[in-house]
Amino acid sequence: MPKETQKAKMDAPAFKFFIGLVAGLTAMVLPRLIAALASSTEGSSIRYFSLDFGLLALAFGAIVGLVIMIFEWKIPSRPRDTFMTALGIPALLSGTLNAYNASGVARDAENLSNALLESSGVPIIRGGGTAPGEKRSENENNEGWFPPGLGVARAYAQASSPVPVRKAFNPGIQVQEPFYYVVLARTDSLPKAREEDSRLRSRVPNAEIIETRQGYFVIQAGGPKPRSRALLEAIRLRKELGLNPMLLEVADGGS
Question: Which is nearest to 17 in space by CA: 76, 61, 80?
């Protein structure tokens, strides 16, 4: 073997350990660094890096370094080859760790949403909503039907055209929240619903009327929303406009 090739390769255990350590730290820190750079942290309490994370990253990198040192004990190799080999180990482990961490964040978000719903005082009407695609409004004629479960809802304001509501593509870990309409008023007849709609139009221009098994509802246009978004919107309407909104549960959660 030529001397230049031998010099380009190293077999010292400390060398292998150091490269494995760097590879492990790279696999742990780089995804979170990219997330921090891609997100706006101004006015946010989200911390992407902490002392606990730093200690975990060092321990993880040390484990990868030890594994690489054992796998390539006294085997001459280029630094590039050792580094690429070392990256394969933390790629799987760090991916698993990140997925577990993301699921924990999703659980925390769901718990927070439940607590906010209980403490908000916003009334909830259960079991009376219709699934997206089954909704009927006072202006709806036989203009077609969308099967439920496609994430599409037709929303008809008075004398307006249908507004489709589609679920955005999201391949991440998701919380399967129930869907709700934001209800501005509830009546037992269409004439009363029209009166309420006319009264509310000055403050909520995008109001519309729908009919369900539990009566007529003046709702905020745009289709049903996930629970967290619907609740925040109801709180906003109560705080800014002095309304007393309710949430109408959708039978088929919009999925």
Answer: 61
178: DSSP letter: P
Domain ranges across the chain: 3-112, 124-249
Rg (CA), the chain: 28
CB 237 within 8 A of CB 205: no
**Cα–Cα dist 56/12, whole Å:** 26
CA distance 245 to 191: 20
Is-contact 237 115, C-beta < 8 A?
Answer: no
H/E stretch holding 185 reads strand 179-187
For tokens 């909104």, name the residue: 245
pTM of the model as a whole: 0.48
Rounded Cα gap, residues 159 and 135, in angstroms: 16
Q: Which residues does 14 contact at the CB level (< 8 Å), separation at least 6?
A: none
pLDDT at 187 over 70: yes
Q: Calculate the alpha carbon distances from 112 to 46, 109, 151, 229 in Å.
A: 15, 5, 25, 13
In whole angstroms, give the CA distance from residue 230 to residue 179.
8
C-alpha–C-alpha distance, residues 24 and 21, integer Å: 5
Query: Is the pLDDT at 231 greater than 50, yes or no?
Result: yes
Inter-CA distances, 141 with 149, 177, 250, Å = 21, 31, 22
Confidence of residue 127 (pLDDT cuts 50, 70, 90): low
